[in-house]
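Sharing a chain and its predicted structure for anyone who wants a worked example. Both blocks are below, sequence first, C-alpha coordinates second.
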Amino acid sequence: MRNLYWFRNDLRLHDHPGVLEAAQCDELLLVYLWPRQRPWCNTQGLGEQRTRFVTESLQALNAELQGVGQRLLVLQGSAELVIPDLVRDYNIHAVHTSQATGSYEQNTIATLGKRLDVPLSVHRGNTLFSKGAVASLSTTLARTFSPFRRKVEKHLTADSETPTPVRLPPPVGADFHKIPAAPCKPHLAMPIRGGADAGKRRLRQFLREDGGIREYKETRNGLDPLDGSSTLSPWLANGSLSVRTVAATITEHEKEFGANESTYWLYFELLWREFFYWRALEDGDALFRAGGRDSAVYRCTFEPRNYARWCAGDTNFPLVNALMHQLVETGWMSNRGRQIAASCLIHDLGIDWRYGAAFFEKHLIDYDVGSNYGNWQYIAGVGSDPRGGRAFNLEKQSNTYDPDGLFTAKWDGFRPKQPDYVTDAADWPISPSGI
Protein backbone atom coordinates (compact mmCIF):
# COMPACT_ATOMS: atom_id res chain seq x y z
CA MET A 1 0.00 0.00 0.00
CA ARG A 2 1.24 3.45 -0.92
CA ASN A 3 0.18 6.66 0.79
CA LEU A 4 0.89 10.32 0.04
CA TYR A 5 1.19 13.00 2.69
CA TRP A 6 0.91 16.63 1.60
CA PHE A 7 2.72 19.01 3.95
CA ARG A 8 1.24 22.48 4.34
CA ASN A 9 1.69 24.58 7.50
CA ASP A 10 3.01 21.58 9.46
CA LEU A 11 6.71 21.33 8.64
CA ARG A 12 7.82 19.01 11.46
CA LEU A 13 7.78 15.38 12.57
CA HIS A 14 7.27 15.84 16.32
CA ASP A 15 3.65 15.94 17.52
CA HIS A 16 2.33 15.34 14.00
CA PRO A 17 -0.72 13.03 14.07
CA GLY A 18 -1.24 13.35 10.31
CA VAL A 19 2.17 11.94 9.43
CA LEU A 20 1.75 9.12 11.95
CA GLU A 21 -1.55 8.14 10.34
CA ALA A 22 -0.22 8.41 6.80
CA ALA A 23 2.76 6.23 7.77
CA GLN A 24 0.52 3.18 8.18
CA CYS A 25 1.57 1.86 4.77
CA ASP A 26 4.34 0.06 2.87
CA GLU A 27 5.65 3.07 0.91
CA LEU A 28 5.12 6.78 1.56
CA LEU A 29 5.42 9.83 -0.68
CA LEU A 30 5.93 13.12 1.20
CA VAL A 31 5.12 16.23 -0.82
CA TYR A 32 5.27 19.99 -0.31
CA LEU A 33 3.87 22.50 -2.80
CA TRP A 34 5.57 25.87 -2.79
CA PRO A 35 3.21 28.61 -1.47
CA ARG A 36 1.84 31.03 -3.99
CA GLN A 37 0.35 34.37 -3.03
CA ARG A 38 -2.31 35.06 -5.62
CA PRO A 39 -2.42 38.60 -7.09
CA TRP A 40 -4.39 40.40 -4.42
CA CYS A 41 -4.56 44.07 -3.40
CA ASN A 42 -1.54 45.19 -5.43
CA THR A 43 0.70 42.40 -4.11
CA GLN A 44 2.04 39.24 -5.67
CA GLY A 45 4.58 36.62 -4.64
CA LEU A 46 6.49 36.31 -1.38
CA GLY A 47 8.94 38.78 0.09
CA GLU A 48 12.62 37.90 0.20
CA GLN A 49 12.79 37.14 3.93
CA ARG A 50 9.58 35.11 3.93
CA THR A 51 10.94 33.08 0.99
CA ARG A 52 14.17 32.58 2.90
CA PHE A 53 12.43 31.34 6.05
CA VAL A 54 10.22 28.90 4.14
CA THR A 55 13.24 27.56 2.23
CA GLU A 56 15.23 27.00 5.41
CA SER A 57 12.26 25.26 7.01
CA LEU A 58 11.97 22.88 4.07
CA GLN A 59 15.70 22.14 4.10
CA ALA A 60 15.53 21.39 7.82
CA LEU A 61 12.49 19.14 7.39
CA ASN A 62 14.15 17.25 4.56
CA ALA A 63 17.25 16.67 6.70
CA GLU A 64 15.06 15.39 9.54
CA LEU A 65 13.20 13.09 7.14
CA GLN A 66 16.44 11.61 5.82
CA GLY A 67 17.25 10.61 9.39
CA VAL A 68 14.11 8.42 9.49
CA GLY A 69 14.46 6.95 6.00
CA GLN A 70 12.47 9.47 3.97
CA ARG A 71 12.81 12.44 1.61
CA LEU A 72 10.70 15.47 0.77
CA LEU A 73 9.47 16.11 -2.77
CA VAL A 74 9.10 19.89 -3.28
CA LEU A 75 7.08 20.97 -6.29
CA GLN A 76 5.33 24.05 -7.62
CA GLY A 77 1.75 24.20 -8.81
CA SER A 78 -1.83 23.95 -7.60
CA ALA A 79 -2.68 21.01 -5.37
CA GLU A 80 -5.84 20.34 -7.41
CA LEU A 81 -3.64 19.67 -10.46
CA VAL A 82 -0.38 18.30 -9.03
CA ILE A 83 -1.62 15.79 -6.47
CA PRO A 84 -4.04 13.89 -8.77
CA ASP A 85 -1.13 13.47 -11.21
CA LEU A 86 1.09 12.12 -8.44
CA VAL A 87 -1.64 9.72 -7.35
CA ARG A 88 -1.94 8.41 -10.88
CA ASP A 89 1.79 8.29 -11.69
CA TYR A 90 2.83 6.51 -8.48
CA ASN A 91 -0.23 4.38 -7.89
CA ILE A 92 -1.11 6.05 -4.57
CA HIS A 93 -3.88 4.44 -2.51
CA ALA A 94 -4.69 7.27 -0.08
CA VAL A 95 -3.85 10.97 0.38
CA HIS A 96 -3.39 12.66 3.75
CA THR A 97 -2.91 16.28 4.80
CA SER A 98 -3.59 18.58 7.74
CA GLN A 99 -6.24 21.24 8.08
CA ALA A 100 -5.29 24.80 7.17
CA THR A 101 -7.39 27.91 7.66
CA GLY A 102 -8.46 30.32 4.93
CA SER A 103 -11.27 30.00 2.41
CA TYR A 104 -8.81 29.49 -0.47
CA GLU A 105 -7.23 26.60 1.40
CA GLN A 106 -10.62 25.10 2.25
CA ASN A 107 -11.81 25.39 -1.34
CA THR A 108 -8.61 23.69 -2.47
CA ILE A 109 -9.36 20.70 -0.23
CA ALA A 110 -12.94 20.49 -1.48
CA THR A 111 -11.85 20.58 -5.13
CA LEU A 112 -9.03 18.12 -4.55
CA GLY A 113 -11.40 15.65 -2.90
CA LYS A 114 -13.64 15.70 -5.96
CA ARG A 115 -10.75 15.10 -8.36
CA LEU A 116 -9.21 12.18 -6.50
CA ASP A 117 -10.24 8.56 -7.02
CA VAL A 118 -8.68 7.61 -3.67
CA PRO A 119 -9.61 8.62 -0.09
CA LEU A 120 -8.51 12.05 1.15
CA SER A 121 -8.03 12.36 4.93
CA VAL A 122 -7.69 15.82 6.52
CA HIS A 123 -6.11 15.68 9.97
CA ARG A 124 -6.14 18.28 12.74
CA GLY A 125 -4.01 21.34 12.29
CA ASN A 126 -1.49 22.98 14.61
CA THR A 127 -3.99 23.77 17.38
CA LEU A 128 -4.15 23.47 21.14
CA PHE A 129 -7.56 21.81 21.07
CA SER A 130 -9.37 19.47 18.73
CA LYS A 131 -12.35 20.59 16.68
CA GLY A 132 -14.64 18.46 18.83
CA ALA A 133 -13.35 20.01 22.04
CA VAL A 134 -13.93 23.53 20.75
CA ALA A 135 -17.41 22.58 19.50
CA SER A 136 -18.27 21.22 22.95
CA LEU A 137 -17.92 24.70 24.45
CA SER A 138 -21.00 26.04 22.68
CA THR A 139 -23.26 25.41 19.71
CA THR A 140 -21.77 28.54 18.11
CA LEU A 141 -18.22 29.84 18.21
CA ALA A 142 -17.81 33.02 20.25
CA ARG A 143 -17.68 36.14 18.09
CA THR A 144 -15.14 37.90 20.31
CA PHE A 145 -12.07 36.71 22.17
CA SER A 146 -12.97 37.22 25.84
CA PRO A 147 -15.96 34.81 25.93
CA PHE A 148 -13.92 32.24 24.02
CA ARG A 149 -11.01 32.57 26.45
CA ARG A 150 -13.17 32.28 29.55
CA LYS A 151 -14.83 29.08 28.31
CA VAL A 152 -11.54 27.54 27.21
CA GLU A 153 -9.78 28.30 30.48
CA LYS A 154 -12.69 26.88 32.47
CA HIS A 155 -13.32 23.69 30.51
CA LEU A 156 -10.31 22.76 28.33
CA THR A 157 -6.64 21.93 28.64
CA ALA A 158 -4.21 21.68 25.76
CA ASP A 159 -4.02 18.23 24.18
CA SER A 160 -0.99 16.02 24.76
CA GLU A 161 1.79 15.77 22.18
CA THR A 162 2.20 12.71 19.96
CA PRO A 163 5.64 11.05 19.65
CA THR A 164 8.19 11.61 16.93
CA PRO A 165 8.49 8.63 14.55
CA VAL A 166 11.87 6.89 14.71
CA ARG A 167 11.38 5.34 11.29
CA LEU A 168 9.04 5.97 8.37
CA PRO A 169 8.14 3.69 5.45
CA PRO A 170 10.55 4.03 2.52
CA PRO A 171 9.88 6.69 -0.10
CA VAL A 172 8.13 6.01 -3.36
CA GLY A 173 10.60 6.02 -6.25
CA ALA A 174 9.93 9.62 -7.31
CA ASP A 175 12.35 12.02 -8.96
CA PHE A 176 13.42 14.03 -5.90
CA HIS A 177 14.78 17.47 -6.64
CA LYS A 178 17.29 19.37 -4.56
CA ILE A 179 15.67 22.14 -2.53
CA PRO A 180 17.13 25.42 -3.85
CA ALA A 181 19.25 27.66 -1.68
CA ALA A 182 17.62 30.50 0.24
CA PRO A 183 17.65 33.81 -1.66
CA CYS A 184 19.20 35.77 1.22
CA LYS A 185 20.54 35.50 4.75
CA PRO A 186 18.68 36.44 7.93
CA HIS A 187 18.93 40.12 8.78
CA LEU A 188 21.31 40.84 11.66
CA ALA A 189 18.43 42.39 13.59
CA MET A 190 16.40 39.16 13.32
CA PRO A 191 18.99 36.36 13.12
CA ILE A 192 16.66 33.37 13.23
CA ARG A 193 16.48 30.47 10.80
CA GLY A 194 13.67 28.16 9.80
CA GLY A 195 13.24 24.58 10.91
CA ALA A 196 12.06 22.57 13.90
CA ASP A 197 15.43 22.51 15.66
CA ALA A 198 15.74 26.30 15.48
CA GLY A 199 12.20 26.70 16.83
CA LYS A 200 12.84 24.33 19.74
CA ARG A 201 16.11 26.10 20.47
CA ARG A 202 14.35 29.49 20.70
CA LEU A 203 11.62 27.97 22.89
CA ARG A 204 14.24 26.55 25.23
CA GLN A 205 16.15 29.83 25.28
CA PHE A 206 13.12 32.00 26.08
CA LEU A 207 11.61 29.70 28.71
CA ARG A 208 14.71 28.32 30.38
CA GLU A 209 18.08 29.79 29.45
CA ASP A 210 17.55 33.57 29.51
CA GLY A 211 14.32 33.50 31.51
CA GLY A 212 12.64 35.98 29.19
CA ILE A 213 9.25 34.49 29.94
CA ARG A 214 9.45 35.72 33.55
CA GLU A 215 9.09 39.36 32.40
CA TYR A 216 7.13 38.74 29.22
CA LYS A 217 4.06 40.79 30.16
CA GLU A 218 6.24 43.85 30.78
CA THR A 219 8.50 43.45 27.75
CA ARG A 220 6.13 42.11 25.07
CA ASN A 221 5.39 45.57 23.62
CA GLY A 222 9.01 46.19 22.69
CA LEU A 223 9.54 47.08 19.04
CA ASP A 224 12.77 45.16 18.44
CA PRO A 225 12.72 41.36 17.98
CA LEU A 226 14.44 39.17 20.56
CA ASP A 227 14.13 42.06 23.03
CA GLY A 228 11.21 40.97 25.17
CA SER A 229 9.13 39.13 22.58
CA SER A 230 9.15 35.34 22.48
CA THR A 231 9.46 35.49 18.64
CA LEU A 232 8.05 31.95 18.48
CA SER A 233 5.42 32.91 15.91
CA PRO A 234 7.49 32.23 12.73
CA TRP A 235 7.91 28.55 13.64
CA LEU A 236 4.33 28.27 14.85
CA ALA A 237 3.04 29.81 11.62
CA ASN A 238 4.58 27.24 9.28
CA GLY A 239 4.22 24.40 11.74
CA SER A 240 7.91 23.80 12.40
CA LEU A 241 6.98 24.13 16.07
CA SER A 242 3.88 22.55 17.60
CA VAL A 243 1.68 24.88 19.64
CA ARG A 244 1.00 21.95 21.95
CA THR A 245 4.74 21.67 22.56
CA VAL A 246 4.86 25.35 23.52
CA ALA A 247 1.90 24.94 25.90
CA ALA A 248 3.48 21.85 27.50
CA THR A 249 6.80 23.68 27.94
CA ILE A 250 5.04 26.60 29.66
CA THR A 251 3.40 24.14 32.05
CA GLU A 252 6.75 22.48 32.79
CA HIS A 253 8.34 25.88 33.43
CA GLU A 254 5.57 26.86 35.85
CA LYS A 255 5.91 23.59 37.76
CA GLU A 256 9.65 24.09 38.17
CA PHE A 257 9.92 27.85 38.66
CA GLY A 258 6.38 28.90 39.59
CA ALA A 259 3.71 30.71 37.64
CA ASN A 260 3.35 34.47 37.39
CA GLU A 261 1.45 36.96 35.22
CA SER A 262 4.07 36.74 32.48
CA THR A 263 4.02 32.95 32.16
CA TYR A 264 0.24 33.13 31.95
CA TRP A 265 0.45 35.89 29.35
CA LEU A 266 2.42 33.75 26.93
CA TYR A 267 -0.32 31.12 27.16
CA PHE A 268 -2.85 33.94 26.79
CA GLU A 269 -1.24 34.84 23.44
CA LEU A 270 -1.53 31.18 22.36
CA LEU A 271 -5.26 31.43 23.09
CA TRP A 272 -5.50 34.50 20.83
CA ARG A 273 -3.85 32.47 18.07
CA GLU A 274 -6.27 29.62 18.72
CA PHE A 275 -9.27 31.97 18.60
CA PHE A 276 -8.24 33.42 15.23
CA TYR A 277 -7.69 29.90 13.86
CA TRP A 278 -11.24 28.75 14.62
CA ARG A 279 -12.76 32.09 13.63
CA ALA A 280 -11.02 31.90 10.24
CA LEU A 281 -12.59 28.49 9.61
CA GLU A 282 -15.97 29.79 10.71
CA ASP A 283 -15.86 33.07 8.76
CA GLY A 284 -14.64 31.67 5.43
CA ASP A 285 -14.74 34.28 2.67
CA ALA A 286 -15.95 36.92 5.17
CA LEU A 287 -12.40 37.07 6.54
CA PHE A 288 -11.42 38.89 3.32
CA ARG A 289 -14.44 41.17 2.90
CA ALA A 290 -14.07 44.87 3.58
CA GLY A 291 -17.05 44.79 5.95
CA GLY A 292 -16.21 41.48 7.60
CA ARG A 293 -18.68 38.74 8.46
CA ASP A 294 -21.49 41.23 9.18
CA SER A 295 -20.91 43.16 5.92
CA ALA A 296 -20.53 46.31 8.00
CA VAL A 297 -20.46 49.67 6.26
CA TYR A 298 -16.78 50.40 5.94
CA ARG A 299 -15.88 53.75 4.44
CA CYS A 300 -12.44 53.96 2.91
CA THR A 301 -10.64 55.04 -0.21
CA PHE A 302 -7.68 54.00 -2.28
CA GLU A 303 -5.20 56.77 -2.86
CA PRO A 304 -2.33 54.94 -4.60
CA ARG A 305 0.30 57.51 -3.65
CA ASN A 306 -0.46 57.22 0.07
CA TYR A 307 -0.52 53.45 -0.11
CA ALA A 308 2.83 53.38 -1.93
CA ARG A 309 4.32 55.72 0.69
CA TRP A 310 3.04 53.52 3.50
CA CYS A 311 4.52 50.39 1.90
CA ALA A 312 7.84 52.14 1.30
CA GLY A 313 8.00 53.69 4.78
CA ASP A 314 7.91 57.22 3.41
CA THR A 315 4.94 58.76 5.22
CA ASN A 316 4.82 61.77 7.52
CA PHE A 317 4.77 59.42 10.53
CA PRO A 318 8.40 58.56 11.47
CA LEU A 319 7.63 55.60 13.72
CA VAL A 320 5.42 54.02 11.04
CA ASN A 321 8.20 54.50 8.49
CA ALA A 322 10.67 52.74 10.77
CA LEU A 323 8.29 49.84 11.32
CA MET A 324 7.70 49.37 7.60
CA HIS A 325 11.45 49.40 6.88
CA GLN A 326 11.94 46.82 9.62
CA LEU A 327 9.23 44.62 8.13
CA VAL A 328 10.62 44.56 4.59
CA GLU A 329 14.24 44.12 5.65
CA THR A 330 13.73 41.48 8.35
CA GLY A 331 10.32 39.91 7.64
CA TRP A 332 9.26 40.78 11.17
CA MET A 333 7.31 43.43 13.07
CA SER A 334 6.31 43.33 16.71
CA ASN A 335 2.67 42.97 17.71
CA ARG A 336 2.60 46.56 18.96
CA GLY A 337 4.23 47.72 15.75
CA ARG A 338 1.63 45.92 13.65
CA GLN A 339 -1.15 47.68 15.52
CA ILE A 340 0.49 51.06 15.00
CA ALA A 341 1.17 50.50 11.29
CA ALA A 342 -2.35 49.15 10.70
CA SER A 343 -3.98 52.06 12.55
CA CYS A 344 -2.01 54.51 10.40
CA LEU A 345 -3.11 52.93 7.11
CA ILE A 346 -6.75 52.56 8.15
CA HIS A 347 -7.48 55.60 10.30
CA ASP A 348 -4.92 58.20 9.28
CA LEU A 349 -4.63 57.45 5.57
CA GLY A 350 -8.20 56.13 5.13
CA ILE A 351 -7.18 53.16 2.98
CA ASP A 352 -8.97 49.80 2.74
CA TRP A 353 -7.48 47.57 5.46
CA ARG A 354 -7.16 44.63 3.05
CA TYR A 355 -4.31 46.33 1.17
CA GLY A 356 -2.31 46.44 4.38
CA ALA A 357 -3.16 42.84 5.26
CA ALA A 358 -2.00 41.70 1.82
CA PHE A 359 1.30 43.58 2.17
CA PHE A 360 1.89 41.90 5.52
CA GLU A 361 1.02 38.55 3.94
CA LYS A 362 3.76 39.10 1.38
CA HIS A 363 6.52 39.91 3.86
CA LEU A 364 5.88 38.43 7.31
CA ILE A 365 7.94 35.34 8.09
CA ASP A 366 5.26 34.46 10.65
CA TYR A 367 2.35 34.95 8.25
CA ASP A 368 -0.73 33.11 9.44
CA VAL A 369 -3.97 33.74 7.57
CA GLY A 370 -6.27 33.70 10.60
CA SER A 371 -4.10 35.87 12.84
CA ASN A 372 -3.07 38.30 10.10
CA TYR A 373 -6.47 39.02 8.58
CA GLY A 374 -8.23 38.66 11.94
CA ASN A 375 -6.00 41.29 13.53
CA TRP A 376 -6.42 43.68 10.61
CA GLN A 377 -10.21 43.34 10.86
CA TYR A 378 -9.87 43.96 14.58
CA ILE A 379 -8.11 47.30 14.06
CA ALA A 380 -10.55 48.27 11.27
CA GLY A 381 -13.58 47.52 13.47
CA VAL A 382 -15.14 44.92 11.16
CA GLY A 383 -13.99 41.79 12.97
CA SER A 384 -13.79 40.54 16.53
CA ASP A 385 -13.33 43.83 18.38
CA PRO A 386 -16.35 44.66 20.57
CA ARG A 387 -15.26 48.32 20.61
CA GLY A 388 -15.66 48.68 16.86
CA GLY A 389 -12.07 49.37 15.86
CA ARG A 390 -8.85 50.71 17.35
CA ALA A 391 -7.46 54.07 16.23
CA PHE A 392 -4.11 54.86 17.82
CA ASN A 393 -2.70 58.32 18.48
CA LEU A 394 0.56 57.90 16.58
CA GLU A 395 2.36 60.69 18.45
CA LYS A 396 1.41 59.15 21.79
CA GLN A 397 2.53 55.71 20.59
CA SER A 398 5.91 57.15 19.61
CA ASN A 399 6.33 58.88 22.97
CA THR A 400 5.40 55.68 24.83
CA TYR A 401 7.30 53.01 22.89
CA ASP A 402 10.17 55.00 21.34
CA PRO A 403 10.53 58.06 23.58
CA ASP A 404 14.14 58.77 22.59
CA GLY A 405 13.58 58.02 18.90
CA LEU A 406 16.29 55.35 18.89
CA PHE A 407 14.20 52.72 17.10
CA THR A 408 12.96 55.29 14.59
CA ALA A 409 16.48 56.48 13.83
CA LYS A 410 17.82 52.91 13.61
CA TRP A 411 15.29 52.05 10.91
CA ASP A 412 15.52 55.34 9.00
CA GLY A 413 12.06 56.55 10.00
CA PHE A 414 12.77 60.28 9.82
CA ARG A 415 11.94 61.09 6.21
CA PRO A 416 11.47 64.47 4.46
CA LYS A 417 7.95 65.74 5.02
CA GLN A 418 5.69 65.51 1.98
CA PRO A 419 2.33 67.10 1.17
CA ASP A 420 -0.67 64.98 2.10
CA TYR A 421 -2.17 65.40 -1.36
CA VAL A 422 -0.82 66.26 -4.79
CA THR A 423 -2.95 67.98 -7.40
CA ASP A 424 -2.00 67.85 -11.06
CA ALA A 425 -3.69 68.71 -14.32
CA ALA A 426 -5.51 65.40 -14.50
CA ASP A 427 -7.40 66.28 -11.30
CA TRP A 428 -8.93 69.46 -12.69
CA PRO A 429 -12.45 69.24 -14.17
CA ILE A 430 -13.06 70.13 -17.79
CA SER A 431 -14.81 73.49 -18.04
CA PRO A 432 -18.41 73.48 -19.31
CA SER A 433 -17.34 75.18 -22.52
CA GLY A 434 -14.82 72.48 -23.28
CA ILE A 435 -11.16 72.91 -24.04
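Comments welcome. The longest helix spans residues 261-283.
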